[in-house]
Amino acid sequence: MKELYRYRSYNENTIRELIESELWHSHVRLLNDPFEHPFEFDWNELKIEKLPEINKHLKIMSHEELTEQYAQREQNKVLNSLKKFIEIQLQDLEKNATGTFICCFSSKCNEPLMWSHYANGMTGLCFIYDKTELSSHEKIELNPIDYNKQVKQITYRDLNSSVTERIQQFSFTAGKVMKKVSAKTELLNHHYAYQKHIRWKYEGEIRSVLFAGSDEENAKSGVVETVSDKALIGVIIGSKMNKTNRKVVATLCKERGIPIHVAAPNKKDYSVNIYRDVDDPVNFEES
């Protein structure tokens, strides 16, 4: 069984997650990393010598049209038009790319910094989820973060263009009939949503990404997805959680038959000890 861990502070939303089997997906603009979703295009690949290859992929011009442009030695004009086309398409794609909602998990349950940052200095808790059960949800697709030192840029190979209209019209400026192409472009992948700087590697993050379906939805601070009751298979409470909050968590877990574990700091080596299946988590004291 593959486990995923979700560190949480103790609050109303966390308790709701426990009771209702809900997963809160926060809008990307509210996440704590200001460098989320680096949407950068690699313009260096757009060179005259690669025009046939680029056009073969994007299918903006027919082979005959491109050959005609080469015969007329208008490669530079074609390249500039192609750059303008991609620039316009990227503006719309980036707008859609920033309309995402993120739910973060970790591959580690004993990471000291996670207990400090996301579980509020061990006064919070950590949910244990069954990855297989989460993945069975129709909207949830779990992918690990790609930690790197340099942003991996989007290339023309990441774009898929389909021509929606081809028309010919006379241009008084050029003094001849010009061909106008309208096309719809989409991203073939969403790698930009799964990369972060290597400084965040300690998190071991695996995330679920949902995309806003409208401007109205994009304006929300987050969205909720209800998962199977079988998805939550354990709760680890921080040893510094107060007794009142422990009682609430213990009672709810008992009602649902969810095992409770306790995380406590090991001050001998700065690690975190996880005590499994604690019988009395309310009065737990590290021996």
Short account of what is shown:
This protein is an alpha+beta fold.
SSE pattern: EHEHHHEHEHEEEEEEHEEHEE
- Beta-strand percent range: 25-35%
Q: Please mark out the parts with pLDDT under 50 across 5 or more consecutive residues, or reply none.
A: none
**Spatial strand order of the main sheet:** 1-4-12-13-14
Query: Cα-atom Rg, whole angstroms?
Result: 26 Å
Roughly how many Å apart are the termini?
Answer: 30 Å
Broad structural category: alpha+beta
Helix content class: 25-40%
Shape: elongated
Biggest beta sheet attributes: 5 strands, mixed
- The overall average pLDDT, rounded, is 90
Number of helices: 8
Query: What's the β-strand tally?
Result: 14
Blueprint of the fold:
Layout: E1 3-8, H1 12-20, E2 22-27, H2 51-58, H3 63-71, H4 75-97, E3 100-106, H5 112-117, E4 125-130, H6 131-135, E5 142-144, E6 146-148, E7 159-171, E8 176-187, E9 195-197, E10 205-211, H7 215-218, E11 222-226, E12 232-238, H8 243-256, E13 260-266, E14 271-275
Parallel strand pairs: 6-9, 12-13
Antiparallel strand pairs: 1-4, 2-3, 2-11, 3-10, 4-12, 5-10, 7-8, 13-14
Key structural traits:
31% strand, five-stranded antiparallel beta sheet, five-stranded mixed beta sheet, 27% helix, alpha+beta, 8 helices, elongated, 287 residues
Walk me through the structure.
The chain is elongated, with a radius of gyration of 26 Å. The strands form four sheets. It has a five-stranded mixed β-sheet. It has a five-stranded antiparallel β-sheet with strand order 5-10-3-2-11. The chain has 287 residues and is an alpha+beta fold. The protein has helices at residues 12-20, 51-58, 63-71, 75-97, 112-117, 131-135, 215-218, 243-256, and strands spanning 3-8, 22-27, 100-106, 125-130, 142-144, 146-148, 159-171, 176-187, 195-197, 205-211, 222-226, 232-238, 260-266, 271-275. The chain starts with a strand and ends in a 12-residue tail after the last strand.
